[in-house]
Amino acid sequence: MDAIKHLVSSVDPLGRDANVPDGATALRDILSGPEVFADRVLVHVPTLAERRQRLAKVAGVLAVAAAAVMAGVLLTVNLGPLASASSPATTATAVPAPVASASTLATSAPTPSAIPSTDPTAATAVPSVPPADAWLNYTSADGKVSFDHPADWKVLPRPVNPEYPAVALDVQDGTGKNIASLHYGASGGIGGACAVPVPYEVLDSEVLALPYNAAAADVIPPRFAYRVLIEPDKVTGSYGITSSAAGKDGKACMFYNVVSGPAESPLYSFADNFQVSAGDAQSANSRVFSSLDEARAYMLTPEYTRAKRMITSLQIRSGQ
After folding, report:
1. pTM above 0.85?
2. Structure confidence at residue 311 (pLDDT)
């Protein structure tokens, strides 16, 4: 409090001045001195304006002093004696938490990144069955015949007569269904009786670079063909390689899936059936449909597209 009192007294505009008489002295001079009339104030007597200015200064200083006294009281009550404080007191200002806007959330969200898993159990297991789109190559022991086939299809060699060497095999799908049979080498002739001709159509055909006997009767360049016989109660379809046309004027009673080949294999075949005849009891390898539209739709199935790819990949190395 002494420091505050000193502050007030040091700036008090009404404090004692040695050159200015106090009020009692001034009054005594006025009453005892000669009467002097003047239109000005004595130099040592402050004017009314000066007194008002001094009063305003005093009020300001008192307000500062009162605030200082109040601050000291509050500090004493809330924080205890200043001498016990180990560090300067700081005043915490409450700041409202910012509200995240939609744009802020959109830009501040972390972008996920693909991080490879190190968990050994997360590794993809190797399938026991190769995928359907995986293909393998088969080459015969003598190197004369080769073709590609789906990895989940099986190539099963068939026994042959040692006196008539040949490459003979069946290709089956994963269910054991026979897809095509191949024979290249020594072989006998072909025959068969023709029944009543029925409508006949070639639904698919692709010429292949395979050896053939161009001098044979009614021969055409070898090709893959998918052909059908349209009978009254069913449509019989068959695919394979051939070098002969079937029937005339859009009708046929039978056709062969064989190629007239070189001397080492006068006839060879890679097809689902060696011979297809109208009216015959169909074997397990026949593709029998209820209508021609159904026979056409079969060409869109995976079985057909894969069988065609396999058969058209056939390579024959004759003369080796």
Report:
1. no
2. 98
